[in-house]
Amino acid sequence: MRGLALSQEVGQVLWRRATKGRTSIKVYRQGLNIDLPFEQTNNSYIDHDKNIKFNYFFARKVMFVKYSKAFVAMPGGFGTLDELFETLTLVQTRKIDQIPIILVGTDYWGGLLEWIKMVLLEKFGNINAEDMNLVHLVDTEDEVIRVIEEFYNNKTSVENRIFLKTIKNNEH
C-alpha cells in the first residue's frame, strides 16, 4: 500500500520487515516512540524527521489513533493489547470514526477472540454480537490489504473514495 504513512505500531521486528527496502518508493515511515526501560528503541528505518518521542502512553495513543485509516496489530505484549482494546473501545462507542481493526496471526489472536466471544458476549452479555464484526482476523499481507480495500469500497464518503484511489494509484 504505497503512498501512505506506515506507523511502527506493529512491533519492532515486523515493522522493520515491512519498511525495509521501501526507500525507493514514496512511503512515509513515522515513529511514535516512548521512553521505556526495555523493549522500545528507535527503528533505524524511520524517517528521522518523522520520529516523535512521547513521555506518556495516552498522548502517544491519541496521536496514532486520531489519524489512522486502519489499525493492524501483530503479535505483541501488554502494550499491543492496550492499544488494541483502546482502539476497539473508541470505535465501539463511536468516539472515533470506524476503521478496520485487523489482527494478523490466527494462531496468536484466535484464542483471545474465542474468549471474547464465549465470555464477554455469550456468558456475560457485556458486548453486542455486532461488536465481533469490528475485528478481522487474517494471516497474510494480501488479506490485510483486502480487508482495508473492502472496508473503504463499502464506504460512500468522498474522503474514503479518495483514500482508496490513493492506494490503487500507488500500487504500480
Brief summary of the model shown:
With 172 residues, this protein is of the alpha/beta class.
Walk me through what this model shows.
This protein has about 170 residues and is of the alpha/beta class. Helices cover about 45% and strands about 15% of the residues. The protein contains six helices and six strands, in the order βαββαβαβαβαα. The protein has helices at about 10-20, 55-65, 80-90, 105-125, 140-155, 160-170, and strands at about 5, 30-35, 50-55, 70-75, 100-105, 135-140. The strands form two sheets. Strands 1-2-3 form a three-stranded parallel sheet, covered by helices on one side. Strand 4, helix 3 and strand 5 form a beta-alpha-beta unit. The longest helix has 18 residues, at about 105-125. The chain is globular, with a radius of gyration of 16 Å. The model has no long low-confidence stretch (mean pLDDT about 80).
